[in-house]
Amino acid sequence: MTSTRTLIRKLSVLALLLAYTAQVFATQQYSPSYGYSVDFPEGFYLSAKNDEGTAYQFSSALLPVEAVLRIYDADRYPNAQDALDKTLDALGADGASESFNWRGTEAAIATFTLKLNPPKNECEGLGIATPLTYGVGTLVLFTWCEKAQYENCLNYMLSLLDSVSIDRGSYFEQGPVTTYAYPQGEEDVSVTLDINGTKVQTTLNSSDEEAARYLIEREYDVLCLYQSSVLWKEAWQRYYRMIFRDSYGRLENAAFDIYNAISASCTDETDLAQQLLTWTQEMNYEREKTDSDFASLPSILLGSGSDCDSRSMLLAVLLRHMNVDTVIFVSAEYSHAIAGMVSSHPGHSYTVNGKKYLMGETTAKGLTWGKVAQDQDDESKWIAVEPPLPYGD
Questions:
Q1: Are 388 and 171 in contact (CB under 8 A)?
Q2: Which end of the chain has fewer CB atoms < 10 Å from its terminal CB, N or C?
Q3: Contact in structure between 14 and 70 (CB atoms under 8 Å)
Q4: Residue 172: which of 312, 28, 37 has the closest Cα?
Q5: Nearest alpha-carbon partner for 296 in 204, 382, 369
Q6: CA 294, 299, 254, 103: dihedral to nearest 10 degrees?
Q7: SS3 content of the chain, % helix, strand, coil (to 5)
Q8: Which residues contact 342 (CB under 8 A, 6 or more apart)?
Q9: pTM of the full predicted structure?
Q10: Dihedral sign, CA of 111, 117, 119, 120?
Q11: Average pLDDT over residues 243-263
């Protein structure tokens, strides 16, 4: 790969990428034609695109980071790694790529350097490529910043790449970067849960705990970038959304085994949810000794301590597996988090997008769904975090 062309010449190779410029914020880029989406870190905006809707450039208003997304026809390249290599070659980038398995298909990841003029500074970046579902094409996404800023921007760029979804199922599975860094282990770990006296035997993959911890700490590092930003609320919601997505697939076996063990004794889904709420209330309360202060869901099942936001996330993930509509609520003013579920049962509820969610307090023993502390019942002080929702839902 060479690195002698100017930025304008490099980008013009990508099918006349710079067709026009428009600063439109692109929190989520979604294509109904190709079925992919990207859950951008807050602050990215669309700076250029082509008329065909197959090439986009994005810029960050938060950090000096650029990104380009390119869609190629299915017959353009033999595989994702070749598509990634040829795209970076066209940019004059110098780097190395590697293929890996993501969602049963061969994807690719690369690190690279390139020189832009102006300024005459070396840049560093990362890229991924993956076939799109149903053979409609290949997605290539790469992002870069000046070399001097690479350490500061690395997790921000990794988070961007890891937010790619290519079909409905990938909204509920770990992203490509986390999958590459922490592939599924060859062995499962046996786990025994005690849910209100009922023993539940289940399994986790041997890589789940470490992989989930990596994602949480990376995303917390990204979240900290927004401490003084007007986008702090949206960044907070995305932080939990990324954790939900990564955790969902990891807890699939556990949710199935828990449901099979306790559902027969429950009168309805609210009774089922109450069994799980009571279980979380009895857990050992312990703050995480990490920057994020968030216990990963696999670590909770393996017996580690937990607090309000990790327990609320655990409930939301498990109940979603059981077809119960759930959210979590977080509050900066109350320094607290609670779970929420759609239910016809009476009780204290908050409305999100026209649906009423009963509140679930996970850290006070003996409370039922629909009860919340009186000094924390100001709905305006709670922020709803919905799980990733595939377009069309």
A1: yes
A2: C
A3: yes
A4: 37
A5: 204
A6: 80
A7: 35, 30, 35
A8: 324, 325, 326, 355, 356, 357, 358
A9: 0.91
A10: positive
A11: 97
